[in-house]
Protein: Ribosomal protein uS12 methylthiotransferase RimO
Organism: Candidatus Avoscillospira avistercoris
Amino acid sequence: MSYSVGFVSLGCAKNQVNTEQMIYLLREAGYSISEVPDQVDLAVINTCGFIDAAKSEAIENILLLAQAKAEGRVGKILVTGCLSQRYQSEILEEMPEVDGILGTGSYSDIVEAANRVLDGEEHLQFFGNINETEEPQRILTTPEHYAYLRIAEGCDNHCAFCIIPKLRGKYRSRPMEELIDEARSLAASGVKELIVIAQDTSRYGIDLYGERRLDVLLEALCKIEGFTWIRIHYLYPDEMSDHLIDVIAREPKIVKYLDIPIQHVNDTILKRMNRRGDHAYLDQLFTKLRDRIPGLVLRTSLIAGLPGEGEAEFEELCDFLRKHKLERVGAFVFSPEEGTAAARMEYPPTEVAQQRAEFLAELESRVIDEYHDSRMGQKELVLCEGYSEEDEAYFGRSYAESPDIDGKIWFTSETPVAPGQFVTVELEDVVDGEPVGTVCEEEAL
């Protein structure tokens, strides 16, 4: 008998890669995979447990699956990922509808877990070595034109506010030869945009080779035919060498878009949070990046309400944003995560942190408006992702928009444009915060 399995994948792109690996393993074992966890024998929910908002989202989705199970639309439920790694006993005790849980070191056990749950066993727990280096094959769940390449797992930074090292283990780089082989396979399958990810991509190689080799890896990836864009996410700010910056600047395939999470800029807060570097270093780094990489779009993430943040420290953060005008900013409210050093420190009230995060978002919205205004009249290369019947327009992304994060570019064309096709679009207006334009037919690629 062939059982059906449906997936819910929550959290970051790194989590999505684990979901893709589980899909591959189950499909190889003879399971049929459903696009949605409805009318299936088994529902697998791969969770995030990083901050309160992610935990709440995971719990809400588990409860929805529990309701579907009660209605007979789902047979069994397996919970995997960071939430199950973090709350191993609580999930089974408080959610009896859940039939089994797998931790972050047990993704490769998904077939055994599925078999045993469907055979009638209950309350199964799989918790393998979170420092395991095995990297199974995967079935892509992204659109055909882009894919993630996870170059490492785990994290060694141990920021005071972050639980990830305890959930994902120590930093483990994948061998470069293995990554190149996977990238070649992705390019051969039609992937146009390769998105390089890890908890900290800039640390790549230090555990395997005794030195950071992200620059060497990027140069090798750029030689692979088929990719038009190579995008880098999650560069830790103090690990960016001059040679790495040179590679990013000179390689045409590497999009001039960098995601560099800084969290804050105040020296005292950064030190308490175990972040390396200080305000002066971040100021110099962002200035240097702007000078050496023309057209650079910078993304960062910030945390409002960190321990030690008063009005003066918050204003210092705002002044930094006003000066550097970062095009993409995610502002989050400090979440005191149990098991972290920061949770034991004194921090501003949540309502104050929420107000500050909202102010940061408002401040950033003005920067984005100015940035979009500066793009009007320009011709930009856009990767088409689809067509909206309702809006009667195509939508896609330029180098300045990362998928599922930064919004879209909307455009019209006199000739059909297929998803995954690159076109040149002249930007003419901004509607509801997103650029709108028209395909330049004579320059379409």
Observations:
- The chain has 14 helices and 19 strands.
